[in-house]
Amino acid sequence: MKIIITGATGFIGKNLIKYLNEFHEIIPISIRYQVKQQLVLNSTGIIHLAGKVHDLKKVDNPQDYYEANFELTKQLYDSFLNSSATVFVFLSSVKASADEVGGILIENVQPNPKTHYGKSKLLAENYILNKDLPEGKRVYIMRPTMIYGDGNKGNLNLLYRLVDKGFPWPLGAFENQRSFCSIENLCFVTNEILMNESIPSGIYNLADDGSISTNQLISLIAKSKNKKEIILRLPKKIILFLANIGDIFKLPLNTERLNKLTESYVVSNNKIVTAIGKPLPVKTEEGLMHTFKTYKK
């Protein structure tokens, strides 16, 4: 198949191109929103990764999210509907569904995003779903949870550096469970979607099997470094007080980052695993250990 990929220079794009090159002819394109832009798509399928990611520092203009994640997706999807391409894959996010999860997140919950990032992704999803899909075309909205793998950045790197430098983990009193998504599992699922026409169009959560706590994550990092983990269980009230101070003085530990590091966010992958009829190739602990080894390079 001839596959166009937008956002090909990012972490996900680079890994996806490397994986899919074995099976398809890949055409990476650079694209951004422009008013009244019309696109010509000469391919069998489109994988739309381009967009604006969540800004933890809250310095970005909200309009940027709606242009990059919603308006651009509208233009690309309309072009897909008017093209000979038969499959469209849109990389959304679990944040289009919920910023907080009580229990296990599944696809058919009532979406309630709180951030401009999540809201802009949801607008794009709804635009796609509300359009009549011509016969012979397929469309998939993928909602991954936190993606990890060789070359990723974010809180996982922060935790790794903390353990690597011998600092104790001070948030041991916070018990949580989180789902993660290996970049290898994301690539595997994407290829299955492209190749298997029997997989129904729709929304699919992407996550590894099972979940892991942040304390377990710290232990895995220490194990990858052949070190003994140092986990402190300081009183939650003290940590929350320090995070509030961080909000005021813009310190690395603030309430938003504290929530990111300690919240529970468990995502079900049952729908996509059932649809593809195959197990995911990478387990969370195995994938994380491999990722930590790449950090040593």
From TrEMBL:
InterPro entries: Epimerase_deHydtase, Lipid_A_modif_metabolic_enz, NAD(P)-bd_dom_sf
Domain NAD-dependent epimerase/dehydratase: 3-206
Matching Pfam families: Epimerase (PF01370)
Superkingdom classification of source: Bacteria
SUPFAM superfamilies, alphabetized: NAD(P)-binding Rossmann-fold domains
UniProt xrefs under PANTHER family: BIFUNCTIONAL POLYMYXIN RESISTANCE PROTEIN ARNA, BLL5923 PROTEIN
Protein name per UniProt: Nucleoside-diphosphate-sugar epimerase
